[in-house]
């Protein structure tokens, strides 16, 4: 799998990432097998967050802690991956990007994972009470100290990205957004246009629209329409619906990196088929039209 630079950063990453939102449990050997399956499939860009845990009925930091146990058992895996994590969400607050909090959050993530450096550190959600100059200063200090490598933003608007970038002496590596054949807002809200303008990288979370594009009953007309168009494209290219969905994202010139959330080795490996699928313009726009629910102008 050919790697490429993440935006203008020093990181060379795989074109698909593996997400660890559902990385849970106490079986370290099973967890290690999942990590190794992702790496074996070529997904060497791993994305986690300190908040991953409570959604799985586990403590705050549980996913990072489990990954730390995997690395303790198999430390050689660390050199095979680009490690991304996120911080800034606090249970009950809910957002804190103050300098003091971010410094403590990074230290806690490093400790949980047992690593010396987080290759890509992302502010998980915008904190409207944190001045971007303060955020920039603490990120710069953490980067200079070698505790984080590059900086990214998650779920920030194009304007919020610009506001932070104005106070940084180095480029923001990437923005992580919700983007799928069902969630097409980034095509119209300036996010992807900004990435094309600046050369910033893009990561796409929930590329299957939180499972809504998978099989299962649905009464949502838009979901049904998008599924139907995906099935047409999938049949034309001899792949599954999920692979067609990933291929739709990969076709955009900003080169979004879909974050594959599956914990099943066969589904992780299947995702790589999307790299060989070239949707036609009619196929791509048919999906966009279905997602919008109205004809294109």
Automatic annotation (TrEMBL):
<protein>
    <submittedName>
        <fullName>Aldo/keto reductase</fullName>
    </submittedName>
</protein>
<feature type="domain" description="NADP-dependent oxidoreductase">
    <location>
        <begin position="16"/>
        <end position="284"/>
    </location>
</feature>
<dbReference type="GO" id="GO:0005829">
    <property type="term" value="C:cytosol"/>
</dbReference>
<dbReference type="Pfam" id="PF00248">
    <property type="entry name" value="Aldo_ket_red"/>
</dbReference>
<dbReference type="InterPro" id="IPR023210">
    <property type="entry name" value="NADP_OxRdtase_dom"/>
</dbReference>
<dbReference type="InterPro" id="IPR036812">
    <property type="entry name" value="NAD(P)_OxRdtase_dom_sf"/>
</dbReference>
<dbReference type="InterPro" id="IPR050523">
    <property type="entry name" value="AKR_Detox_Biosynth"/>
</dbReference>
């Amino acid at each position: 799998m050919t790697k490429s630079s993440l935006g203008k950063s020093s990181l060379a990453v795989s074109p698909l990432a593996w997400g660890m939102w559902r990385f849970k449990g106490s079986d370290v050997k099973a967890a290690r097998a999942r990590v190794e399956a992702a790496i074996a499939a070529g997904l060497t860009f791993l994305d986690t967050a300190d908040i991953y845990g409570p959604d799985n009925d586990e403590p705050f930091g549980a996913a990072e802690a489990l990954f730390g146990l995997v690395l303790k058992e198999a430390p050689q895996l660390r050199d095979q991956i680009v490690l991304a994590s996120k911080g800034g969400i606090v249970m009950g607050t809910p957002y804190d990007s103050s300098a003091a909090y971010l410094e403590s959050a990074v230290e806690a993530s490093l400790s949980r994972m047992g690593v010396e450096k987080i290759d890509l550190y992302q502010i998980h959600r915008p904190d409207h009470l944190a001045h971007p100059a303060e955020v920039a200063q603490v990120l710069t200090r953490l980067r200079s100290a070698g505790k984080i490598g590059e900086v990214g933003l998650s779920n920030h608007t194009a304007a919020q990205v610009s506001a932070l970038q104005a106070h940084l002496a180095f480029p923001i590596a990437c923005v992580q957004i919700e983007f799928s054949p069902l969630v097409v807002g980034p095509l119209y809200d300036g996010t992807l246009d900004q990435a094309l303008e600046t050369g910033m990288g893009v990561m796409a979370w929930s590329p299957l629209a939180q499972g809504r594009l998978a099989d299962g009953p649905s009464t949502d007309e838009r979901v049904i329409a998008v599924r139907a168009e995906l099935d047409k494209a999938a049949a034309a290219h001899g792949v599954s619906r999920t692979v067609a969905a990933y291929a739709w994202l990969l076709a955009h010139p900003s080169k979004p990196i879909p974050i594959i959330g599956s914990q099943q080795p066969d589904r992780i490996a299947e995702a790589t088929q999307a790299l060989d699928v070239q949707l036609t313009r009619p196929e791509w726009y048919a999906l966009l039209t279905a997602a919008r629910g109205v004809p294109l102008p």
